Protein: Methyltransferase
Organism: Pontibacillus litoralis JSM 072002
Amino acid sequence: MTQSFQWHNEVKKKWDSNVTFWSERSRSMWENGSRATIAPFFAKHVPSTSSIADVGCGDGYGSYKLNQAGYDVTGIDLSPKMIEHASQVAQERLKFQVGDLEALPFADEAFDAVIAINSIEWTESPCAVLKELKRVVKPAGYVCVGLLGPTAGPRQNSYRRLFGEEVICNTMMPWEFEQMATETGWKVVDGEAVYKKNVPQDVKEGLSKELQQALSFMWLFMLKKS
């Protein structure tokens, strides 16, 4: 990258400028869209009342949903305008602050669990983020990661790197992320696909894990700190 290109500043500018667009879509995604299954998946492993960090929380609607489910949530995002928007609708026990996923402003072992939905892809070093998440999670704690799958349109944000252009999105395949998580000391304990609406139910049920990941719009991982 050129010296004039600063990844974190570019990410901040992008999401600062997308607050209105994103907040208009976020509620529907969490209520009945591509993110509707995340809270139930999370609850399978993390008891309610647990302290959790929502890293890359965006407009905060996901944090709100988790708080409504009984979790003590702290949302963090690199975009000051996203945090400003989220703070306007903050509820009791729901906190928001600006912060960098690669250098989280939290003490060691501060949380029972962490959730990161479509946020690790927007970091310069996803591997460094996984190590940082391990630092802030308590022993035997969990991290839930939502990673864009191969069929997700937003993956186009990283396409121009094939031309040697500077981009701010590190998309990766679910199986690549899983290997990276294993190599950085996480135990993969669960996974679940989110598909586009036009994928028939009988097709989903007959696929191996590898083919489920290949067809997914998003893959949900549950990682455990070993």
